[in-house]
Amino acid sequence: MAAQNDVCIPVSEEKTEQLEQEQDFDYSQRGQWLRAAVLGATDGLVSVASLMMGVGAVKHEVRAMILTGFAGLVAGACSMAIGEFVSVYSQRDVEVAQMKRNNRIAGENDEEIREKEALPNPILAAAASALSFMLGAIMPLLVAAFVVDHTVRLGVVVATVSLALVVFGWIGAVLGRTPVVKSCFRILVGGWMAMAITFGLTKWIGSIGL
Question: Catalytic activity, per the record (predicted)?
């Protein structure tokens, strides 16, 4: 009968602790924050670019486009921040109420303290949402400010927005583990449609003298 040899491979305590920390880290939560940031930047990019294209359909002055885009940036960032704050605060209230129902005993144990620390922060969520919106919205504003010719300015805005949308679509596909080509195509067509509809309707309303 052949003898059986048991081989024990020692594992250092540092590697064990590192593995435990990786298991405890919530990668899904980080992915949600990143996807929310990408969506906020995409919203700011498309919203402000569409506003600028709409104004550019009836006015050729660069000042009018820049002022309209800046107003859209400020209004959109404030709207995103307020909406995110209310939404996350409501979610936090629901989770706190659920924790109180699950913990009827007096006092707080270590698990309950960790749960409270893991609750979403409404202020942080609002700031992140507003910042991501502004980062997306600033792109068409910057490129339009340095182009004098009206037609070229519109083309540069469309090209810049298209490139940024492809990048955002790629990031969203990587984070969501979805097909990159389909994701980029969907977001690119959606951005084109938003700008084209805004440009066309504003051009039509301006032509009939409303």
Answer: Fe(2+)(in) = Fe(2+)(out)
